[in-house]
Design goal:
Elements (H helix, E strand, L loop, with lengths): L1 H14 L5 H37 L8 H4 L8 H7 L2 H32 L6 H8 L1 H4 L2 H11 L6 H8 L15 H26 L3 H9 L4 H12 L1 H15 L4 H6 L11 H11 L3 H30 L1
C-alpha cells in the first residue's frame, strides 16, 4: 500500500518543472525595489524637488507678487550676474571661508586634545565628559542668545570679569568690525568641540592597546607615539569629522543671526546669512536661490571628497 502511494509522488517530483530563472530574478528585483522605493520617494519629495525648484528659481524673476499672480518669468542669468557683481557677495564669501576654516581648526584641535585626555582612566572621567557635551545639546539659537548677553560690551559677564582682573572691561566683542567675526568663530568653536571630542574619542577606543605598549617598550616619547600611532590610526575618523564639520559649518545661519545679525557693517555676513537677507529681508527670492545653490554646490564638492576618501580608506 505504501509503495503504491509513494509511486505517484515520485512521478510528480520527477515531472515537476524547475523554477524559471528569469522569473526568480524578476521577483527578487521587485522585492529589492519594494524595500528601496520608500526611501527613493522620500528623497525625491523632500530633497530632490526642493533642489530642482531652487535651481529653477535662480533663473526666474521671483518676487512677492508671484505668490498672488503665479507668474515668475525666466530672466536668464540676470540673478547670477546680480549676485556676482554685488560687492557684498565677495565679502560674504571671504567671511564664510574664514569662519569655516577658523571654526574647523579650533574645534578639531581642542576636540582632539580632549579626546586624548579622556582616553585615560581617572576619577569622574564619565561625569566630566557628560558636562562637556552640554554645549552640543543646547539649541544653537539659545547658545547664540546666551553668548550675546555674555559678550555684551556694557553689561556682559566677560567684560565684567576681565575688568575685575584689571585686563580691561570695555572690549566691543560684537560691535566692532574687527572683533565681531572673531567672536562668532570663538562661539562656534565652543559649540562644536563636543561633537569633535565624541567622534574622536570613539575612534581612540578602537586603537589597539598593544601598539601603545610596544611603543612604551621601545622608549618612544608621548609626542612620537601620538604622531606615529594615534594620528595614523585615527585618519579615517579625522576625515569624517572634518568633512561633516565643514558641511555643517559652511551653512550656519541661526548662530550668526542670534549674535550679530550679520553686522556690524556686514562684517559677519556669510553666504548663509546672505541667502537669508536676499530671500526674506529684501524679498529677492531669485538672488537668494543663487546664493543657496552656491552653498549646495560647495557642500556637494566636499561630500564627493568625503565619499572618495572613505572609498580609498576601504581599499
Amino acid at each position: 500500500m505504501s509503495t503504491t502511494t509513494a509511486a505517484p509522488a515520485l512521478l510528480t517530483a520527477k515531472t515537476a518543472k524547475p523554477p524559471n530563472p528569469a522569473r526568480v530574478r524578476r521577483r527578487r528585483r521587485l522585492a529589492q525595489w519594494g524595500f528601496i522605493a520608500p526611501a527613493v520617494i522620500f528623497m525625491a519629495l523632500f530633497f530632490g524637488y526642493p533642489l530642482v525648484r531652487n535651481i529653477v528659481m535662480s533663473f526666474q524673476d521671483y518676487s512677492p507678487s508671484t505668490f498672488f499672480t503665479g507668474e515668475s518669468p525666466f530672466n536668464g542669468t540676470d540673478n547670477w550676474s546680480k549676485v556676482f557683481n554685488d560687492e557684498l557677495f565677495g565679502k560674504a564669501l571671504v567671511h564664510t571661508i574664514l569662519f569655516t576654516i577658523g571654526s574647523l581648526i579650533g574645534q578639531f584641535c581642542i576636540g582632539l586634545g580632549l579626546a586624548v585626555f579622556f582616553n585615560r582612566r581617572f576619577p569622574l572621567n564619565g561625569v566630566l565628559r557628560s558636562l562637556i557635551l552640554l554645549p552640543w545639546l543646547v539649541p544653537m539659537v539659545v547658545s547664540g542668545v546666551v553668548w550675546r548677553r555674555i559678550l555684551d560690551q556694557d553689561t556682559g559677564v566677560l567684560n565684567s570679569f576681565l575688568g575685575t582682573l584689571g585686563l580691561g572691561g570695555d572690549t566691543p566683542w560684537l560691535t566692532s568690525t574687527s572683533m565681531a567675526l572673531i567672536s562668532v568663530i570663538l562661539v562656534n568653536i565652543w559649540i562644536g568641540i563636543p561633537f569633535n571630542m565624541v567622534i574622536l574619542y570613539g575612534g581612540l577606543q578602537e586603537v589597539p592597546k598593544e601598539l601603545y605598549e610596544a611603543a612604551a617598550l621601545d622608549g618612544a616619547s608621548a609626542w612620537r607615539t601620538f604622531r606615529s600611532i594615534t594620528l595614523p590610526m585615527l585618519r579615517p575618523v579625522i576625515t569624517v569629522v572634518l568633512v561633516l564639520g565643514f558641511m555643517s559649518t559652511v551653512k550656519i545661519l541661526d548662530l550668526i543671526l542670534a549674535l550679530t545679525d550679520g553686522g556690524p557693517a556686514d562684517s559677519t555676513q556669510t553666504l548663509g546669512t546672505l541667502t537669508y537677507q536676499n530671500s526674506f529681508v529684501q524679498l529677492d527670492f531669485g538672488a537668494g536661490a543663487v546664493v543657496g545653490n552656491i552653498l549646495i554646490l560647495i557642500s556637494a564638492v566636499f561630500a564627493v571628497f568625503y565619499l572618495r576618501a572613505n572609498r580609498n580608506e576601504g581599499k
